[in-house]
Specification:
Layout lengths: L1 H9 L6 H31 L3 H27 L18 H33 L2 H25 L10 H16 L7 H27 L6 H48 L1 H14 L4 H11 L3 H13 L9 H20 L7 H23 L7 H31 L1
Helix pairs in contact: 2-3, 3-5, 4-5, 7-8, 7-12, 7-13, 7-14, 8-9, 8-11, 8-12, 9-10, 9-11, 12-13, 13-14
């Protein structure tokens, strides 16, 4: 019996002070590596735009945190303090190579790091010899191998398909939309109405002011006529723009409601045909017939969803995407009035050529500002958009001024 027990005695690990210090140093480094991985995966998960990719990265972050906890518990058992994390808050996520190459490059780098960690931990099994540490190393190595496979799937976009319930799908959609919208200005319909209104009022009234000023250049009461024409034009333009925006938004909503009602009647009258129509629409976008039918089958579980999908495909919009008539009217009318008042303003204090020059300068500056503001909802540069609108305004003002002079001469003769 004594001989049978002898092999166990031979494998007992006796740790001296030097071995303990070396072990603590190695485990402290392991803890730092795992915490750096936790912060890296966590930061990349917040950068990911794909919901499933985001969930995978969050899972990897939690696994790295678990590994760090294992090393922390072993350090505590050895009488060593748990170290403080000395890396950046986002780990390696914001390193130069990752920021230049994007998420794919970051994942490839992490895949390589995981393979190195596996090799490093395997080497520690041979070097450290501490049974409790070896047990943790074996567990961590298995997890790191899974991480390596997961990263490979993320890089190659071979994500496992998971069935989401409606609430999970809604949350995933909200996360994706929020991620895509982060840092990107949204072109709200009222902003478009406002910019168009300022541009319309500025251009139209600058043209009127230039024309009337040119026609009444030699009249002592010319500034008076310019003010009357400018203010009347401002009011008329604002009312016209407001009513036009209101009617346009209301008509758009009425068309959607009419189309929705037609689709509802079509579903009630012949649902199989409506489902086939929607399936063919999705097939034209690249889905197979089987996938399209399966997708439409899920949508058709509720008739309201089927009707909304059909109406959306016909009009390429949803009820939430429609403009609100009163919002469009208000923003259009007020912005037009603001734009129209700018070229009129100098004539309250000046007359003749000086007033025309000041009105021209102020109007051209306003044209540039409005053009630059358009870049908030377009992909063009602000200076290019501003210069383009300034050139159009200058041409418009020059043409109407010359025409006004001609009309003034004809009226005088």
């Amino acid at each position: 019996m004594r001989d049978a027990r002898h092999p166990r005695v031979a494998h007992c690990y006796i740790m001296d002070t030097r071995d303990k210090e070396h072990l603590i140093e190695a485990l402290t480094n392991n803890w730092q590596v795992e915490m750096r991985g936790f912060h890296t995966y966590n930061a990349l998960a917040h950068q990911a735009t794909d919901p499933q990719q985001c969930r995978s990265l969050h899972s990897l972050a939690l696994a790295e945190q678990h590994h760090a906890d294992l090393w922390a518990s072993r350090l505590t058992a050895l009488g060593a303090p748990v170290p403080e994390y000395d890396g950046p808050p986002s780990g390696d996520a914001d390193s130069l190579s990752n920021r230049i190459g994007g998420l794919d490059l970051a994942l490839r780098r992490l895949e390589l790091d995981e393979s190195r960690d596996i090799a490093r931990y395997g080497k520690q099994i041979q070097e450290l010899g501490d049974p409790q540490t070896v047990a943790i190393l074996n567990e961590v190595i298995e997890d790191e191998r899974d991480h390596y496979i997961t990263l490979g799937n993320l890089i190659r976009h071979h994500l496992p398909s998971t069935q989401l319930d409606p609430e999970q799908a809604r949350q995933a959609l909200d996360q994706l939309v929020a991620a895509r919208a982060k840092g990107q200005p949204q072109a709200a319909s009222w902003i478009g109405d406002a910019i168009y209104g300022v541009n319309d009022g500025l251009g139209a009234i600058f043209g009127i002011v230039s024309g009337v000023a040119g026609a009444t250049e030699k009249s002592p009461t010319g500034a008076h006529y310019v003010l009357i024409a400018g203010l009347a034009g401002m009011i008329a333009s604002a009312l016209s723009m407001g009513s036009g925006a209101y009617l346009a938004a209301k008509s758009e909503r009425e068309i959607y409601e009419a189309e929705y009602e037609r689709e509802r009647e079509a579903v009630e009258f012949n649902e199989p045909e409506a489902r086939e129509l929607l399936s063919l629409t999705y097939q034209m976008r690249g889905l197979t017939a089987e996938d399209a039918d399966h997708f439409v089958g899920h949508i058709a579980q509720k008739k309201g969803q089927l009707v909304e999908a059909l109406a959306r495909e016909r009009l390429h919009t949803t009820q939430e995407g429609l403009s609100k008539p009163w919002v469009s009217a208000t923003s259009g009318a007020l912005s037009t009035a603001v734009g129209a008042f700018i070229p009129v303003l100098p004539f309250f204090f000046m007359a003749g050529i000086p007033a025309i020059v000041v009105a021209a300068v102020v109007s051209l500056l306003a044209h540039f500002a409005v053009g630059a503001a358009k870049s908030l909802i377009t992909i063009r540069s602000w200076w290019s958009s501003g210069l383009e609108m300034t050139a159009v305004g200058a041409l418009e003002g020059a043409v109407t001024y010359v025409i006004g002079i001609g009309i003034g001469h004809l009226a005088g003769s």
